[in-house]
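Predict structure. Chain length: 231.
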Amino acid sequence: MLKAKYGWELSVDGIVADQDIFNHILKNRGIDDADHFFNMGKESLHHPFLLDNMTKAVNRILLAISLNDPIIIYGDYDCDGITAISVLYRALKKLNANVHYDLPDRFSDGYGLNLKAVDDIIQKGYKLVITVDNGITCMDEVEKLQKAGIDCIITDHHEPKGVLPPAFAIIHAKISDNYPWKELAGVAVAYKLAVAVLGNDLDELLDLVMIGTIADLMPLKDANQAIVNLG
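Prediction complete.
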């Protein structure tokens, strides 16, 4: 069994009476207004076009769809990555996109876009690659795609490391100065792209966004708690 990475930080210690348990849980989690917390909704979700490069990414995807170019969504093997693939794939299918998906094998491929996958993408003739929940550190892989004439749109939430890959567009809350909430899960970033492409809220996909957000242990505050409430 994996050891927990996080410990409890308690604001209220000791045993409490049954009737006080709920209020003490709220206090331990720093929730002062339970009604507001559990009723946060769409008004707490930030506009997708506040993310840097969103317009550029949307226009590139719409161009690929108009040309019937094959698009591949490349994700990750964890719950956040799989739900991110599901959200973006289902959204693009609504526009009849020629869209496919792939994700690495945990044991043979490891995390994220890799050179083996890039070779396969080139061989199969994809014209546009969209990463979800990975890609922000894939310098060599994106460079190889670029040299092959294949555009890459990165959507990710992991920490950047130094120089960014030479992608066509990078959508990432932590490197978007105008985006007010930085702690989005990978699936939430993919959802923002999907909403921007389709121009609607895609309410039917919010359950997947909720699952990926919780599974990736994102802080349940601000837009994340709104996503959970809506999902």
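Summary: The chain is about 40% helix and 10% strand.
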